[in-house]
Amino acid sequence: MLKDPSTKYRPFPAVRLPDRQWPNRTLTHAPMWCSVDLRDGNQALAIPMNVSQKLELFQLLVKCGFKEIEVGFPSASNTEFTFNRRLIEEQRVPEDVWLQVLVQAREDLIERTVESLVGAKKAIIHLYNSTSPAQRRIVFGMSREEILGIAVRGAQWVRERLSQLKGTEVRLQYSPESFSATEVEFAKEVAEAVMDVWKPTPQHKMILNLPDTVEVTTPNVYADQVEWTCRNIKNRDSLIVSLHTHNDRATGVAATELGMLAGADRVEGTLFGNGERTGNLDIVTVALNLYMQGIDPKLDFSDLNALAEVYERSTGMRIPPRHPYAGELVFTAFSGSHQDAIKKGLAEWATGRQKYWEVPYLTIDPADIGRQYREVIRVNSQSGKGGVAYLLESEYGIDLPKEMQREFGPIANEEVDRLGREVTGAELKSMFWREYIERTSPWQLQGFETESRNGVVRCRARLLREGEPVELSGEGNGPLAALVRGFSALGLPRFEIVSYREHALSAGEEAAAIAYIQIKHSDGRTHWGAGVDTNIELASVRAVLSALNRSQASK
User: What total number of domains does the chain contain?
Assistant: First the structure.
């Protein structure tokens, strides 16, 4: 990092709004919600959802109460177009749900987008083009006037094709994409030019979406941008002002909440914040933040565990254990003082004498979202794998993979049960070291070398097998693959590496690394191993030997 970052970076300019009103306002009702999981969320996945996954997620969003769902970019591919048509032709869209589709300000794409909506009951056509100085200069090489012209032509092309959607209730939406990095005066100018083409009225409003496409400053500045626009744009009563925030500075939720205070009517986001880079706005968090203030969010998250399960299955993403409301450990107390306070608060609530929820450390009743409070603090014979894993991680930085927790948890608990008492973190670490790190029979590492040529790695390992020297060599696309082939050449039963993780244990030049490896034998048996070394490659090799030694011991 630079000692003086101001030589490379500069603060984002503030909006001149000395009489800003949003700091004195209070949120009193839910916004209009629009899920963009099937578009923004889907495009950010390493493996985009297939049609069946998208259908399942669409049905889940409808069940949660979303009335506006951005279903895709139908002009981008036949898959996107076909999904749109299937929703409409198979009548999968409830009467009160709007299908939103995204399109750039290009005539051919607009034509294809309109075709995808024929027969829909309610449709939102979401037109956008980028407006920020960096986009104008670097990406498009265009002046302000040329960028404004793109927006106007796009709006005209949309308007000219609305006659193709007879029988469809259409709402138009425009986004000056990269609004958060655009001069507010220019964003207003472009938006008003689009309004001149579409001619919204208080009876037939258009959506003006103000994306925080990339968080470039603090949430209060975004709120100023939103309030400035709401106060200065013409015909405000003919607009639905919408927010679309991202999370680059980890303040997407804050930016949205302040943007709502600043006058926005509508919010776009995704379940659990899935999206490009650090993600989109997490709608679940904002909705439940309203709920814990006594405001009906107009969305039903009463079975959050089931929602999370479908989300993870559909997207392949995982919800972090500390994620607000939905994380595995959110309603878990490890601290004894926290446990005591929560117990007393729950006991008071159970008496029925308190009208309002006020349990220390629990912002909402877990039961309201289908969850429950649980305690994990000490490791004794009654402790689960969560307590074992927590102590190892919090005291020694040993972050066990979940599958490995399931293997080691019962081993540790059996030892604790034999002792008949609670154990310390140091004792728990010793158990782990004995079970995994210090396993040296029958295989013990003496030396390991690799060389690479034309993408092929060759390894040579010097080992002890039951105290007798053994050498092996093998080739593969990496050191571990070469090692596995080397063992096969020695006549060992075939096995493969099915899981691998590693991380540092300490800081500094001599920092040790720990590797976790799970192997699977041809008969389906699996075993975990762990290895520690200052060299991550050697730590990985030791982990393979650890797993092999444990598999031999279990026979």
Answer: 3
